[in-house]
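A quick aside before the break. I want you to see a complete sequence-to-structure record at least once, exactly as it would be stored in a machine-readable document. Don't worry about memorizing anything.
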Amino acid sequence: MVIATILSGLATLFWLSLVAYVVWVLVERSRRREQKIRISVIAVILSGALLSSALASSIVVIDAGEVGVVFNAFIGTKSTPLYPGMHLIIPYVETVYRYPTQEQVYTMTQTPSAEQIAYGAMQDDTLWSPTREGLQVGIDSSTRYAIDPRQAPHVHNSFRNTYVEVLIRPTIRSIVRHYVSQNTVTDIYGPKRREIQIAIENDIRERFEQEGFLLLSFDIRNVNFTPDYAQSIEQKQIAQQQAEQMQYVLQREQQEAERKRVEAKGVKDAAITQAEGEAESLRLISDALAKNPSLLTYRYIEKLSPNIRVMILPSGTPFILNPEQLIGETTGNGE
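That is the input. The structure line, written in tokens, reads:
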């Protein structure tokens, strides 16, 4: 690029020198001075100008991210593209057309951003198409692609700079509409969305490669619905959420009822166990009293306060223990 610029500047300088020399000669003649145009000077300056111009026109520098296509005035487009770097062409016979090989993005959406518009997106370019059940859905998508440098001559001959309008947009819309019409709204919006996207991407890639383009990715950005259908979906989701809420409440009530049932059963089992224990205790006490009738009197005395040493009873009140019986039992034991 620098060399070509220098040569172009040099050629311009030679041409200006030639013009200046001719003007100078004419001015001198107008002053009645004998001044002739020297053919040798004209030849040197003209040779320098033509040589510089030819060299400047023959040197072409292709920048990174570009590919050059050479068109020859006699044989047409050359099949070999020019890759980044400096190249020599036949001046005034061959012309180089440059095409970008960097990634390009084509976006179809209802509300494109300024950046997307700069990349070629149109205002409200959502693809509306009927589904298998006849409902209209709008597909927002982004397609990343690039020109295949090896196929740049084919792109030049077939599309020039109109490939977005002639190939990219129509191909995407046609293939997307085809797959939308073969699936239901639930498939497109639901679990089959990824599967449908992959199928669309494969078909677009095949079509692009036939025309000299590389498909980098295809993404479904959003699925739009008509206002009526969107409202019905919203109502359905609200009803579904309410049903799920009622199901949750029902499960919670069932769990609470189960908890209370288990708790009541526990209380019942505890009462039965306690009653069985008390019954067993009474049976043991009854057996003990049957074997030793005086045990009841002993337990009674045992319950009295241990601090009582003397007990005063009214006259005529029978003793709790019969002294004579105790004396008799003591005497009998002594013998």
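Two observations worth writing down. Confidence is low (pLDDT under 50) at residues 326-335. Residues 2-100 form one domain. We'll return to this after the break.
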